[in-house]
Amino acid sequence: MNINNGPQETFGLENASEEPAWAQVWRIIFQDEKWLNEAECHGLNPVLVGFDLEHYYKSEKSLTIAPKTSGKLDEKYLVLQPGDMSGDFTTYSRDMPELFFSCLKPHEFDKANKLVRLRNGLTIYIGAVFDDPEIIKLPDLTKLYSPGKQNPESRYLFWRHANNTLGRVGYDEMRGFGGKGRQRWRFESICCLILSESCVRAEHPPEYFFQREDFDDSVVRCIDNRGKNG
Description:
Blueprint: E1 2-4, H1 21-29, H2 34-41, E2 47-49, H3 53-57, E3 76-81, H4 88-95, H5 97-103, E4 107-110, E5 115-118, E6 122-125, H6 127-130, E7 135-138, E8 154-158, E9 167-169, E10 174-175, E11 190-194, E12 207-212, H7 217-220
Parallel strand pairs: 3-6, 7-12
Antiparallel strand pairs: 1-4, 2-3, 2-8, 4-5, 5-6, 8-9, 10-11, 11-12
């Protein structure tokens, strides 16, 4: 496992307390904007996905994670998706990995599992930064959703968008086994999240596909709009 302490650089406004909530969330992860700006130069708009965004976006002053009584950090989990369906920027990032990693806050990199673990307890899956941009393969999809057996939902936050707000994906904007449904089990192995809230200004809202890493790719593609499995 590699450890990167990296230089501490200014991110966004000089006074972090003046930053809007969306910028403070990105500040938790990145210490400068070079990789994010490069993504924009490629016509992309990176997005963070995961229900745990609620924990960060609603924090007004301290955006660090409070320790449990056991002394261990309350681990949170997000996915970083560059939004590169062509694969061009994925190839660029793969050829220049030092650019991406140097922009992150001090972290440990778990190469085998494609995870970055920040010192504040946040774990970020970065497989989509370097690998297949079309389908994001995770060890555990349930970490993306709200707890409970019914009515799962998730959250997302784009790097740039019109309203700079936290987006919500309800169960009615998620597709899994049998299409849509309220039952959490439908989305434990395969899932498509449709980011259709007003903060995404697009005729066809972005869709992101996720699958459990030990699951068959051919089944995942069955939940696409071109061939729903229900």
